[in-house]
Amino acid sequence: FRDVPAVNAAHAAMVAMADRKGWTLVSTDKGGAFNPATLKQFDAVIWNNISGDVLTLSQRKAFQDFLAKGGGYVGMHGSAGDPVYFWDWYPDTLIGARFAGHPMDPQFQEARITVDKSHPLAANLPSEWRMTDEWYSFKNNPRQTGARVLLSLDESTYTRKGRFGANLDMGTDHPLAWTRCMGKGRMFYSAIGHLPETYSQVHHVRLLEDAIAWSASKQTCK
């Protein structure tokens, strides 16, 4: 599945960030780029709302080796929104949580986001903000797999009825964005990002910009 409006809005936001920060940014929709020779030229890879079975076995190994050797990963919204997975390592080890669903009645709602101000990526974020998007729930909490949660969702501020009436409650601890160390590398994932306008929302843009810089850092991951 390719959510074209979100992908295009996110791409435009990444290009603008690269211009501001002086980053070199390369964009491709070809899995063949995931090979050792190509990946070693980059500090981090960004998965822009990627879903489905997109890498071959050799490409998967190249990606895992890239992270273990110090590369970074940034995943946005749909990059952890598949109902079926073809590669267990991706949801269970890299992301650390499997997608459960999102509300359908209504699909897009305003909700309150809270920030862990002790997190290294929290310096440029407020302690909380409100925005409208499609809010993901997960079958497990990524904290249980060693992730460090940066953003959480206040479930009291939106309704959580999923497809066919499914209950999407995660309780008082509903992770929305988190980080983890992957060998010498780093990963960051944020469930924000279905609506194109989220990629011009000031706090979300700052979050992504700082997360990309953090994931590409060569300092020891903690």
Short overview:
The protein is α+β, with helices and mostly antiparallel strands and 222 residues long. The chain contains five helices and nine strands; from the N terminus they run H-H-E-H-E-H-E-E-E-E-E-E-E-H.
Overall description:
The protein is of the alpha+beta class and 222 residues long. The chain is built from five helices and nine strands. It has helices at 4-21, 36-39, 57-68, 89-95, 202-215; strands at residues 44-48, 72-76, 99-101, 109-115, 128-133, 137-138, 148-154, 175-182, 185-190. The strands form two sheets. Strands 1-2-9-8-7-4-5 form a seven-stranded mixed sheet. A two-stranded antiparallel ribbon has the order 3-6. It starts with a helix and ends in a 7-residue tail after the last helix. The model has no long low-confidence stretch (mean pLDDT 95).
As a percent range, the share of helical residues equals: 10-25%
H and E order: HHEHEHEEEEEEEH
- Give the low-confidence spans: none
Counting H and I runs of at least 4 residues, what is the number of helices?
Answer: 5
Structural class from helices and strands? alpha+beta
The end-to-end span amounts to: 34 Å
Q: What is the beta-strand fraction?
A: 15-25%
**Quick check: average pLDDT?**
95
Largest sheet: 7 strands, mixed
Count the beta strands.
9
Radius of gyration, in Å, reads: 16 Å
> In one word, what is the shape?
globular
**Side-by-side strand order of the widest sheet:** 1-2-9-8-7-4-5
